Amino acid sequence: MNGFDTAWLPPEAFGPLGARRTLIRGSGPLVGTVRDEVARACERFGGEVVRDGSYDLLLEVTDGGLGAEEFTCAREGGTTTVTASNGHGLLYGLFHVVRLGAQAFTGGWPREVHRPATELRMLDHWDNVAVHPVMGQVERGYAGGSLFWREGRAREDFARVRAYGRLLAACGINAVCVNNVNVHAVEARLLTDRIGEVAAIADVLRPYGVRTHLAVTFAAPVVLGGLSTADPLEPAVREWWAAAARTVYAAVPDFGGFVVKADSEGQPGPFTYGRSHADGANMLAAALAPHGGTVHWRAFVYDHRQDWRDRTTDRARAAYDHFAPLDGEFAAGAVLQVKHGPMDFQVREPVSPVLGAMPRTRLAVEVQATQEYTGQQRHVCWLGPMWSEVLGFRPEGESGPSVGELARELVAVSNAGDDPFWTGHPLAQANLYTFGRLAWRPDADPYRVLDEWIGLTFPSAPARLVEGLHAVLDGSWRTYEKYTAPLGVGFMVQSGHHYGPSVDGYEYSPWGTYHFADRDGIGVDRSAATGTGYAAQYAEPWSGVYESAGTCPDELLLFFHHVPYGHVLSSGRTVIQHIYDTRFDGVAEAEKARRVWAGLVDLVEPAWHARVAERFEEQVRGAREWRDQVNSYFLRKSGVPDAHGRLIH
Length: 649
Known about the structure:
- The protein is α/β, with parallel strands linked by helices.
- It has 3 domains: about 10-115, Chitobiase/beta-hexosaminidase domain 2-like (Chitobiase, domain 2), CATH 3.30.379.10; about 120-225 and about 265-285 and about 340-445, Glycosidases (TIM Barrel); about 480-525 and about 560-640, Alpha-glucuronidase, C-terminal domain (Alpha-d-glucuronidase, C-terminal Domain, Alpha-Beta Complex).
- Helix content is about 35%, strand content about 15%.
- The chain has 20 helices and 20 strands.
- The chain has helices spanning about 15-20, 30-45, 85-100, 160-170, 185-190, 195-205, 220-225, 235-250, 275-290, 320-325, 385-390, 405, 430-440, 445-455, 465-475, 475-485, 540-545, 555-560, 575-600, 605-640; strands at about 20-25, 50, 55-60, 70-75, 80-85, 110-115, 120-125, 125-130, 135-140, 150, 155, 175, 210-215, 255-260, 295-300, 335-340, 365-370, 410-415, 520, 565.
- The strands form 5 sheets. It has an 8-stranded parallel β-barrel. The protein has a 6-stranded mixed sheet with strand order 2-1-3-5-4-6. A two-stranded antiparallel sheet has the order 8-9.
- It is globular and about 80 Å long.
- The two termini are about 45 Å apart.
């Protein structure tokens, strides 16, 4: 197998489907896609697409009162039947049958209705059209170049984009933003005179039910339109955006909408004109409304020019302080896109309080599949358990709804590129697949989803391979956490590129990413009583739980509290001993995973195995570097020796 052709949909995954007689009823472009998929399976594995007579599989568009993306599946009388109200649902139903494999044609079961829990399941690509002198072509991308852009223009050959659309549909993703949220000069023009390139991409993704979105600069009326202002309440500005939207929809009739990063990290926004985020988002929503589009307004807004000596300023507070007072002021076509934690995709941080504070606002939860702070697709770090914890968190306590129930949409920063294995680290494919499946059903068991990915990627895999993949993936997020930043404190990375350890890398910077370690203790006091007050942004019971070091969960202790090194955790260990022990444990677990993978060499295609083995060598090296730097730093800072007498440099 090779990464371009297979990922989690190698031809073998369609084997049970291709050996059948299949009847397909319905019309339209996506029904055509279903026909093509089934026909290819039949050509490879036998079977046929029939027009009448007997059949094993019926795929049918019916007027059965189903929603736009819903489908039903049943097996009765020796026939498996999938029904949907349109081609979108039928395509998802087909891939459901593929996931079931031989089970789809075994036994019997009554009609089941399958529907996505979220309206939109989107990937944001941080791709630059032109290679940016600082950010390169894909900002925070660890899988090669862009799938969409090459040498300053849209790619001429879209075969890989077409394959990408197929992979996305197979896991339930229905939208893609094709450019960086940090919109540079070249990318800004995609909105106007270069919209034809966006249309070409949209044409390729459309047969798989994937709508195209575009990141735009808030300053576009000035940058592109020659206006003197981008004030969202200025009539000329509002008309400029309305005209721009009309141009976009003339080229891409099913265009999804805009993604906007405003008033954040130097990007322009409504603050320049004394306006609110609701003013800015609603202006764009009004321009898109006649066409059925939406604006995704990112809530990643904070002061990135902080004074590290000022402990009253807290980056974690920023999103809530900016947006919670605006609840109810956003238009129906404006989606507030909120990072799952208050900081920046750390390996461990609390769920953002914004997600429980805006019941009258349409919310999207944003996660990061590309592993910026979790190993950059050089370390294996399957994020399914992390995302599942976020989606299962109940901001109002056990009696209230979960984040997965509150969010109408889920968005991930994509981890795919033009690397032969799609994601750089072949095992990072599991993150992309898992995101799609959790976006479809946020309460799904992530380990069952991982089973799906394994079954699709390695059809008919022997038990030893399945067990080995689980051994290296199941606990990989917690392994990575063990050898990197401890107890929720975050960062401690090299500045700029964010790869590898530097305990004080951001400690005296303006970015607001501090651990405040001194000779007596470590952590950030975010209590209401003595700290920044961040803990009070949560509703009860969480505000009370986080307020006290005695009740705060250990894994978040240093995020919420500055404590002595001798503070005793619920495990019975002191903070300093926990730091030492988990660094050593993390390295040992990384070394064990490397050994497990080496033992699978006879079960995995050679190029696939070699790439993963190469990445494991880097992971073990990196884990040891993290262990040595973190342990050495805190031994010297605290003066407290390791209770087990291990070598700390």
